[in-house]
Amino acid sequence: MPELRRDPIIGRWVIISKERGKRPSDFIIEEERTKGGFCPLCPGNENTTPPEVLAYGRPVFAPNTPGWTLRVVPNKFPALVIEGDLDKRGEGIYDKMNGIGAHEVIIETPNHNETISDMPREQLIQIFRAYRDRILDLKKDSRFKYIIIFKNFGRAAGASLEHSHSQLIALPIVPHRIEEEIKGCLRYFDYKDRCVFCDIIRQERSQNIRIVAENREFVAVCPFAPRSPFEIWIMPKRHQSSYTDMDEDQLLGLTNLFSEVMRRLNKALPRVPYNYMLHSAPLRNGSLEHYHWHIEIMPKLTMVAGFEWGTGFYINPTPPEEAARFLREIDIRKEFKKT
Known about the structure:
By secondary structure, the chain is α+β, with helices and mostly antiparallel strands. The protein has one domain (36-337): HIT family, subunit A (2-Layer Sandwich). The chain has helices at residues 121-138, 176-192, 196-207, 248-268, 306-311, 320-329, 333-337, and strands spanning 3-6, 13-16, 54-56, 70-74, 89-91, 94-96, 102-107, 146-153, 165-171, 211-214, 218-221, 232-236, 274-279, 294-299, 314-316. A ten-stranded antiparallel β-sheet has the order 3-4-7-9-8-13-14-12-11-10, with helices on both faces. A three-stranded mixed β-sheet has the order 1-2-15. The chain has a two-stranded antiparallel sheet with strand order 5-6. The longest helix is centred in the last third of the chain and has 21 residues, at 248-268. The radius of gyration is 20 Å and the shape is globular. This is Galactose-1-phosphate uridylyltransferase. Pfam families: GalP_UDP_tr_C, GalP_UDP_transf. GO terms for molecular function: UDP-glucose:hexose-1-phosphate uridylyltransferase activity; zinc ion binding. Zn(2+) binds at residues 39, 42, 112, 163. It is an enzyme of class 2 (transferase).
C-alpha cells in the first residue's frame, strides 16, 4: 500500500508509491552526447569570461591566465547584477526592487571531462573551500541577505555547459523556501527545545536504515520523506547553522563523505542528472540554535507534473530505506583507489 509521509521540518507531505517501487536499474537515464567544440571554461580561454574574483593553484600576480586549479568568475549572463541600489518601492499592492545581487560561476576543475564523482579529493576540497571563501567575501556587502550555492549536472537538471561547474547567487532577500525551512525548525525548537536536524541525525544513526554513509564529522541519509528517488542529505554531526562555521577538520570530513556519496550514486545510476543545493543560515541572522546547515542532493529521475504543481505533494516510487540500502551496499573500493 502507498504511504503518505510528512517531512518533520516544514510539514510537506510526500507519497511513497511502493507499488511502483523502482530499483536503480528500472530508471531510464538518457545518454548525453557531448557537444565538443569551444569551451569558455577551459584553460587558455580565460579572456572569454569576466575577470576572475578568485583562483587557486597559480601565483596571484598572474590573474586570468592558465595554470589555475579552480577559478571563480562572475556569470556572463547574470540573473542579478552587483551594481546599483535596491530602490525598494511599491506599486499599489505590489512590491518590487532592483535586481541587485551577485551571480558567480565556480569552475571546479581545469579538466573539461572531469566530474564530481571521479574527481580526486584534493580537487574536491578546493571546491568546498571556495564556497566558504566566496560566502565570507560577499557577506561584507550589506545589501546581501542570503547566498545560495548550487550545482546542475546534466541537461535534464539545467546544466547548459558540460565543463564541471557550480554557481553562487547572492540575494537581497531570504528566499521563501529557506524562510519556510527556518520557521519549521523554530517551531520544533520552541516545542522540544532541540534542533530538529540534530534529532534527525540521532534517530537515523539509531535506526540505521536510511543512512548511506558517515564519518566522524558528517552523515549522509536518504530523508524520511524524500521528494525524489535517491534524494540524499549531507549534514554535519556538530550543530552549526552556517556553512562558514566549519573548521579544517570538518572541511576534510565533508570532502571525504561527499566524494564517497557521489561515487556511490554514480555507480548506482551512472551519469544521472542531479542538482545539489547548499542550505545555510541567512547572512545577517548570527548563530541559530534551531537551524542546521546541510547539503541536499536531488537526482533528476521523475517529472514534476500537474499533481505536484497543483498540490505541493511529491510522488516518489522508491522508498528511502531501499534507496539507502542500494547505495550502502555498492562496492566502491576500486573507485577510491583511483584517488
